[in-house]
Automatic annotation (TrEMBL), chains A, B:
UniProt GO molecular function: DNA binding
Species assigned in the record: Terasakiella brassicae
Extent of the signal sequence: none
Keyword Membrane among record annotations: no
Name under which the protein is recorded: Crp/Fnr family transcriptional regulator
Residues covered by the HTH crp-type domain: 155-229
Transmembrane intervals: none
Keyword field: DNA-binding, Transcription, Transcription regulation
InterPro entries named among the record's database cross-references: cNMP-bd_dom (IPR000595), cNMP-bd_dom_sf (IPR018490), HTH_CRP (IPR012318), RmlC-like_jellyroll (IPR014710), WH-like_DNA-bd_sf (IPR036388), WH_DNA-bd_sf (IPR036390)
Length: 257, 257
DNA sequence: CGCATCGTTGAGGCTGATCAACTCGGGTGG
DNA sequence: CCACCCGAGTTGATCAGCCTCAACGATGCG
C-alpha cells in the first residue's frame, strides 16, 4: 500500500494501474496525459472517510483501496449499492448533474486523485473521446447495478455470494489486483451482508457452507476461488457485463465520413 | 394511443412529449430538431415484442406505451430491472459499447422512434451538449437502478411497492402522463412481482392490504395514490434521484474561459 | 488486563414462497 | 348463442429461507 502510494505520487504515468486503464478504455498516451494533468491532488484517505465530501464539485479516481457507495434508511438499515475498486471513477453524476443522492465511504485506507468536475464537464467540448470514456465508465457502472438488481431480486443467498465473488474477481483482474484465483478482499462480513441484502449471520453461515463444499476460501481479508467453474454454474455468471469497447464511430472518428 | 401515434407520425416537433423532454433536458429548439432529424423511423410495436432486436445498432426513443428491461435466469426466474416509459431512451449502452446483456420487451403496444447508433456516437464530436444529454439520461437510469437495489436489498414488500408506485408517478408526471395522483399502469401483477423480486401471490396480498388501508387504488390498469404522504413516509421516498440538470460548464460552455 | 470489533454458533420466529383451488371476464369456435 | 378456454386476479394452507436475538470465542490494541 505504502509503496504503491509513493509510486502514485512520484509518477502517475508509470503507475501500473494507469497502464491497465489505458488498455481498458483504449486511450492514447496523450489522452492519459490529459487526465493526469487534470488531476490536481493525489491523497491518502484513511479508512472510514467519505470518498467525496458531499457538495464537492470533484470527481475521484481511486488508485488503491476499497470503498463503497451506500444508502442508509431512516431506521438504520444500510444498503451498499456498489463497491468501488482501484480504477473506478466516482462522483461523475454528482458533479455533471448536480445531484448527490448517495454517500461514499472508504472501507480501507485509499489512495485517490481528484479532478475538478468542471474539467470533466469541459471534456465534452475539448476531448470527445475522453467524454465518451467517462460515459463508458458510467455505463459499466450501470451494467453492474443491473446485475446487482438481478441478484437481489431473484437469486438466493448462495447464488448472490457466488456472483459477488466472481464479479469482484473479474473487476480486480482487469486492474491487476489478482493472483490467479485469489485476491484481497479487506472488508468485513457485515459489508458483504449490506451489499447482498442479507443479515450478517446468514452471510456467515452461507460462507461456511460454501467453504465446506470446497467452493472457496475466505479468511483474513483474502479470497481464494477453489472451484470457479462450479461457482459460475451456481449463479450463471457471465463477465460480459463488464466488457464492451468504444463504438468505432467514436474511437476512430472521421469528420469527412 | 391511436391519436397520439398519428400525432407522432405527422409532426414529432409538436408532440407534447417532445416539449416535455426539451424542458427536462434543457435543450434548444435546434437541438431537438437535430434529434428529430436523426430519427429515421417511427413505428408502432405490438405488445410482447422486443423493443430493440438484439444485435441491433439502433437506439430507441419510446413515445408511448410501456416496456421493460429484464433478465431470465437459466431456471426461468425472471427479474425486471427497469420499466421503460414514454420519453426513455433505450439501447445507448448496447450501441455505444457493443454490449447487450439484457433483453427488452414491450408490455403494451408502443410507439417508438429509432435512431442509428452511429449517429448517437457522432454526437460526441458534433453536438457535445446532446452527447451530454445522452449521458444525462444514462446517469438518470443509473440513479433509478441504485434506488432499485436499495429496495430489493433492504425494503420489505410493502415498502417496495410504495416506492415503485411513487417513482412511477414521478416519472410519468415529468412526461405528462399523469392526472393529479392517478395514472395508467397497464401491466399485470406478475410484472410487478418480477420487478420487485416477489411472488405474484405476495404482490396480490400486499396490494390488498394497502388498498384496505386507504393507501392506494389499483384496478383495471389504473393507479390512484389515495394517501401519497403516507406512502412516502412508508418507504422514505424522495424524487431527488430523478432530478439534476446539466452542469453549467456544459450548458453554457465558453471556449475562452 | 480490559475493551472493542469481528466472527461463529444455536434457537426460534416471521416474511414471503409454493402449491393448489376457485372466480371472473373476455375471446373463440362449434 | 352458448360452451369452453385462457389469462389474470384472489384466497387458503403449508413450508422454507432468512432474520433476530442471544451468547460466546478469537484477535488486536491502548
Amino acid at each position: 500500500m505504502q509503496e504503491n502510494y509513493d509510486c502514485v505520487m512520484e509518477n502517475l504515468a508509470t503507475n501500473p494501474l494507469i497502464e491497465k486503464l489505458k488498455l481498458l478504455m483504449d486511450l492514447t498516451d496523450d489522452e492519459v496525459q490529459v487526465i493526469l494533468d487534470l488531476s490536481f491532488k493525489t491523497q491518502k484517505l484513511p479508512k472510514g472517510q467519505s470518498l467525496i465530501p458531499s457538495n464537492s464539485e470533484n470527481v475521484s479516481l481511486v488508485m488503491d483501496g476499497w470503498a463503497c457507495r451506500y444508502k442508509i434508511l431512516s431506521d438504520g438499515r444500510r444498503q451498499i449499492t456498489s463497491f468501488i475498486l482501484p480504477g473506478d471513477l466516482t462522483g461523475v453524476r454528482a458533479c455533471l448533474f448536480g445531484v448527490s443522492d448517495f454517500d461514499t465511504e472508504t472501507l480501507t485506507d485509499c489512495v485517490t486523485t481528484l479532478i475538478d468536475g468542471k474539467d470533466i464537464a469541459r471534456l465534452f467540448y475539448e476531448a470527445p473521446r475522453l467524454a465518451a470514456a467517462v460515459t463508458w465508465a458510467s455505463a459499466r457502472e450501470e451494467a453492474m447495478l443491473t446485475e446487482h438488481v438481478v441478484s437481489l431480486g431473484r437469486r438466493n443467498a448462495r447464488e448472490r455470494m457466488a456472483h459477488l465473488f466472481l464479479e469482484l474477481h473479474s473487476r480486480l483482474e482487469i486492474v491487476g489486483f489478482v493472483e490467479k484465483l485469489a485476491y484481497g478482499m479487506p472488508i468485513t462480513q457485515e459489508m458483504i451482508a449490506d451489499c447482498l441484502g442479507l443479515s450478517i449471520v446468514h452471510v456467515n453461515r452461507t460462507l461456511k457452507a460454501m467453504r465446506k463444499e470446497g467452493l472457496l476460501e475466505y479468511y483474513n481479508g483474502y479470497v481464494i476461488l477453489k472451484n470457479a467453474k462450479k461457482l459460475r454454474s451456481i449463479c450463471g455468471y457471465d463477465s460480459n457485463h463488464l466488457e464492451g469497447t468504444l463504438h468505432p464511430e467514436i474511437a476512430d472518428y472521421d469528420p469527412d465520413a
